[in-house]
Amino acid sequence: MSLEEAVKLIQVHERARQGRVRAQLMLQIRRKAEKSLKPSSVAKQTSEEKAALRIQAVWRSFKVRKFVKDLRDSEMIFLGMKRIEDYDLIWTGKAEKILVERDSLKKGEAVRFQEASALTYEKIINYEEQKMKEYYEDRLRNYFLKYFKATGKLPDIPKDEDGGSEAIDFNYFPRHEDDSKQRKSPLYGTVPKVGKKRSKKSKKKSGKTEDKASVKEVPKKLLQFQPSRTLGDINASAQRYKEQWLEKDLRQKSLEDSKYDEMLLIEEKRKEIMEDIRRAVDSKMRKQLDILRAALERDLGKKRPRKVVRLRRGGRKSKKKREKDLTPDRTLESLVEELATYGIIRPPKNIEMADLIGEMKFVPTKNGKSLPSFRDVKQAFIEMCLLPLGSKEMRLNAPFLRSLLIAGPRSCGKASLVHALCNEVGAVLFDISPQNLTGKYPGKAGLAMLFHLLLKVSRAVQPAVIFIEEIDKVLKKTSKSDRGFESGKRIKKDLPKLIKSISSEDRVIVVATSNQPWECEQKALFAMFQKCLHMGIANYSHRYKIWTEQIRQILTRERCIAGPEVDITALARITDGYSSGSIVRCISQTLSERRLSKLPYQPIKAAEFIPELSKLEPVYKEEMESFISWSQKTPLAKKAQRLAKTEEEKNKEVVLPAEHKLKNNKQKKKSKNQIKKRL
């Protein structure tokens, strides 16, 4: 054996020995780790607070990692080391896959739930229908016998609208002796009176004293808020959750397999079947009651009394005037086609609420003499118009709004809000602006036909928005010699009638815009429109956001990147006094197709926007001052001013007695000291 072969053999054996030692060491480490992971019998369970802290720590770490990753990706995109399309396509593809999977799961589970509900319905009808019918019939028959024994008469079953037999108190039976002293009741026929009669003089005196006491005790409030109508529904749903789902273990095998609670489903279906059977039994027992009454009258030889029709003082019946249908023989399709051909019904512009960019005001106003920001106006518009038109429950429970006025300078986003509302809710847009009505539906008969079609079609295709642009042309203060506003003035008389005819059940709203509201007749304006939104020009933060978002949207659409030469802060400062619409127009005109084609070798600079900006007209200071002065003269602003004055007076009344008390205490101390010195 040579020397080299001996060295190689020794090396192989040494390496094998080291490997065996290392394997034993790793085995010991692994066993120790497994022992530490196993829960000991003495160890206490983690409390809810510790578990919550662990969950929070995991979530926060994930959130921070995601934020850092987004920052890194945005930096890579800015440096040109990563494409925007690759970054967007990855996440859009993932989101689309998740949505498709979620929709397929929803559809499958919905089909399973419908099949299960149909099976439970059939089972309950097959096994429990006869027992339910016998229960309701026996209950009503026993009530009829007891009532007849107590009064000698047969009772009445309330209508289904009033609750039917569920509204009957089966433990209440009036007596024979009190029949002459009883007053009529809508459910049972009679209810005894409570209390003694009072003379007219005592009533007058007590009424006067009560009025005086109420005047003294209850202070007058200028702004009174109504109680919430949705709070009761929220509390009821929370109570139902506590009763049904709070103490239920959702990790049961039955719930995981079926994805619904079988006991709850059986209870709901049983309630539906019981309600249907109760109504059927009520109608059957009403017929039996009529037969029994006729038999009793035949035996006693009496005739049924006729219903007395109460008349008014004039002797005529009280009937509401019904609107005449001017188009009884025409179909809805023909009416919609007519309005569409005349341009009254027109498609809204392709604008969504997310496209309307706004920002809050970060600088406080001086003495409140300024208009709200676009973001605040947008939020108020969503709460007043979009949510009630979007759902029937919100329309019925939210404060009822028939009409809304949006006042602001030109091209600040008033009409865009209306178009976005129509797109979000899927509403039909009826445009009756003065510009759109020129030469259409001439004369009084034509105008009556127009408003009749508006009401009829808007109720049929609701949700609907009736839009009036430049309402100041309709309600403008003009003399007889002034002409040119005839198309707007002709709808001035019929427009309030149209607004009043909208009921709370109709998801229809009238929205008007105005550039010069101070030129309108103020009484007619605020009598016609219930609420008013004031819009101003864009502030610095709003302008900065418009510049950044609009440039980014155009460049991402063309798959380009803006260079560092675009100084957006300078552009936002230069455009002070310009409206948001004029800024958007300037960006779209500057970044034309020809200019975008040169972006790869010629980046955009801020100076390129100035020539197009100089062609646009800003909103002057005098116009904004007139808007602010008009907004302070509105009824709501006057109420706020009165409320502020009353609060100031109350604060003064509270402060003055304290000052007088301090003065009196000082005088008393001085007099005591003088007396002590004399003594």
Automatic annotation (TrEMBL):
GO molecular function: ATP binding; ATP hydrolysis activity
Domain of life of the native organism: Eukaryota
UniProt xrefs under Pfam families: AAA, IQ
Residues of the ATPase AAA-type core domain: 404-525
InterPro entries named in the record: ATPase_AAA_core, IQ_motif_EF-hand-BS, N-DRC_Component, P-loop_NTPase
Region (Disordered): 168-216, 641-679
Composition skew (Basic and acidic residues), residue ranges: 207-216, 644-662
Compositional bias per record (Basic residues), positions renumbered to this chain: 194-206, 663-679
Gene3D superfamilies for the chain: 1.10.8.60, 1.20.5.190, P-loop containing nucleotide triphosphate hydrolases
Protein name, as recorded: ATPase AAA-type core domain-containing protein
